[in-house]
Sequence to fold (148 residues):
Amino acid sequence: MATLSLENLVKIYNGKQIVNSVNMKIENNSVVGLLGPNGAGKTTTFYMTIGMIKPDKGQVFLDEEDITTYPIAGIDPLAVIDIKNIISHLKNRGIGILISDHNVRETLEACDKAFILNDGEIIESGPLEKIVSSETARRIYLGDEFKL
Ligand SMILES: Nc1ncnc2c1ncn2[C@@H]1O[C@H](COP(=O)(O)OP(=O)(O)OP(=O)(O)O)[C@@H](O)[C@H]1O
Ligand SMILES: [Mg+2]
Fold:
């Protein structure tokens, strides 16, 4: 069992803290969503996770190994159905996956758990039922009408 850990990741642009000490654990054989409103810091968090940009503070570990600056290649866009098939295939092979997308329903349905980011901070995390029933997640991101 390998674990990808984001530890206290911080990114500052133009003096503003865009990602504010984010912590996440992503285990292999699990699918984890990274969601939140526009400008929440999802892409910045994701880029730090894969080594495309360097955090101002914090580290990324794969188990005990510090991988904070290892670049991982980007992936071309594919249709949702292809991505879903790929996700389940990778998961079945024991590989952990972090997904970030604006298609909330499709993303949540593909995930075992998710993190909701707002203003650079995690405002909710956990399994889907917890996210969907969270007052905070509904107020800030999902909206009152949201159902899976
Ligand atoms: N290279 C950069 N220089 C300055 N500000 C940046 C840079 N990249 C991102 N930002 C700012 O950081 C904040 C978070 O951006 P980010 O792209 O991580 O958000 P996001 O959650 O991915 O948003 P979206 O849902 O629109 O994709 C935004 O206010 C954005 O303007
Ligand atoms: Mg983005």
Q: What stands out?
A: The two ends are 30 Å apart (CA to CA). Residues 3-142 form a domain with the Rossmann fold fold (CATH 3.40.50.300). Residues 72-77 have pLDDT under 50 and may be disordered.
